[in-house]
Amino acid sequence: MTGHVAVISMGGTIAMAPSASGGIVPSLGADDLVASVPGLAELDVKITTESLRSLPSPSLGFADLVALSTRVRQEIAAGAVGVVVTHGTDTIEETAFFLDLTVPDDAPVVVTGAMRHPHSAGPDGPANLYAAIRVALSPDARRIGTLVVMSDEIHGARFVRKNHTSSTGAFVSPGFGPIGFVVEGDPRLRGIARTGLTLPADPRVSDVRVGLVTVAMGDDGALLRRAGDLFDGLVIAGLGAGHVPAAMVPVVADQAVRIPVVLSTRTGAGSVLRHTYGYPGSERDLLDRGLIQSGFLDPAKSRVLLTLLLAVEANPTAIVEAFDRFR
Ligand SMILES: NC(=O)C[C@H](N)C(=O)O
């Protein structure tokens, strides 16, 4: 296969070094990261680099993701066999899902990062970047959407979550598992079907405000009373299979009349239900009151999807249909 692999860096621990004032901060660019990876010369592929952002991933926003998605598509149009994005791990799952929804091209798009910074004992960044480049070169990684490669595991963007603060094995796809592994440098993948949903990386995403609230026992919805004034949409990380306390129902229902309210779950795995429970605050009650079920999408990914939909002024039916693809 001809062409090149484009490596685009966004910052994150993979690109951090100790600062004079203490702690590590983003310092390295894409060139430095590629230079730190042993074994790339043997791959016989041209690697191009671009340092698009140098930020800790908690400080990335939707405007950055629009810029990234645009650059990824430009690289593919210019003949890249695959694109690798290096990124902080805190929000890697949101960026990967954003790219999954906005980059419909066949070429693999692989996002990676590091849990240990380059100056630590045993940094995982070089190994992760090597594995990501190998996946980007794999014909089996074509046409299956954006992937996250960490710790020699290959995860689908719509499933993956960070579920540990410090482990190098922090990434899981709850209920689904990795869709492949990098074995002795060689990607072994089982395919996944794309959802078929593509949305534009519209710059208006920066103007859309979608709130995300996690529900807890005894919650009366006080935080949500002004949600319709403050936000264009809301995601509720509900209890269990998509439930809230009965006391919260009137508040949630009021907001759902004003703005789209998506019901997800705080459990970390599984789909919200639709038909089982009939008590006040149950999923049936909330869906009857106009909330939109998130399917298997977790709260953070639901927020990404709702933001992209609201940016293009999707109507209520289109919003429901989009989320229905993740059931
Ligand atoms: N491991 C990491 O990359 C975490 C870092 N705080 C970030 O997301 O930028």
TrEMBL record:
Q: Name one GO molecular function term.
A: asparaginase activity
Supply the name of the protein: L-asparaginase
Q: Specify the species.
A: Actinophytocola oryzae
The record's annotation in SMART domains points to: Asparaginase
What does the organism's lineage look like at the top? Bacteria, Bacillati, Actinomycetota, Actinomycetes, Pseudonocardiales
Kindly list the positions annotated as binding substrate: 57, 89-90
Keyword tags: Hydrolase
- GO biological process assignments: asparagine metabolic process
* Pfam families, A to Z: Asparaginase, Asparaginase_C
Domain L-asparaginase N-terminal: where? 4-187
| UniProt keyword annotation of Plastid present | no
Active site annotated at which positions?
13, 89
Q: Which family does it belong to?
A: Belongs to the asparaginase 1 family.
- Which residues belong to any copy of the Asparaginase/glutaminase C-terminal domain? 209-323
